[in-house]
Structures are given as C-alpha cells and as structure tokens.
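Could you join me in thinking about how sequence relates to backbone shape in a protein? Label the sequence line and the structure token line clearly, so we can match residues to local backbone shapes. Once you have written the record down, we can walk along the chain together.
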Amino acid sequence: MSKLRQSRPGRRLSGVQVPLLRSRFVAGEAPTGLAAGAPTGSVDVVLVQAGEKRIEVVKVVRQATQLDLHVAADLVDTPPSVVVENVTLAEGERIKAALEQAGATVTLQHGEAA
C-alpha cells in the first residue's frame, strides 16, 4: 500500500499559496467574491415596480412573507414598498431573484440605511 503524503506549509491552496492568502487578509483586502462596499449584514428587499405579471409577484411575496392574499396584494399595488426587512444578504438576494423572475423590479437596501 502506498503511504499518503502529508501536506507541507506553503503548498498551494486553490491556486493561491497559503502565505500569500494570509498576507492579503492581514493587508485588509476584501476576500474573493465580496465586492468592496457591498452590504454584508442585513438588507431590506424593496419592491420598486410589480411589472406586468402582478399575480405572479403577489404569489412570490406571499411565499417570502407568509402574508395573507389581501395584504400581499396591497403591498404589491403600492410601490415602492419594503417586502422584507433585516434579512441576510443571501436571503435578500434569493428573494430578489424570485421576484425578478416573476417580473418585478426590486432593489436591496442596506438594513440600517433604510
């Protein structure tokens, strides 16, 4: 049987040498995948316009908020309106994508600024 080799310090990790990766974090650079100035805390999902498929947008709003039909329809009919408040960035992007797929125009606002 062959023996497994132990990794040595300084070996490559996903194409970046470990000491180089460590120096970038120490220098204060943003890690890959995070845009400079992008909100990382909580965000608000704001419906700017419902678009042509109003009924589909109401369905997505109901799924995201657990509101009843009448309240969700009122929210969609009176833009701009906050659909959800203080959610994580990942959850906000998921809801935004679902609303945009339904035909709505949506923005994300940083939770503390809204």
Summary: Helices lie at 18-27, 54-65, 69-77, 89-101. The beta strands are 12-13, 16-17, 42-49, 81-88, 105-110. The chain is about 40% helix and 25% strand.
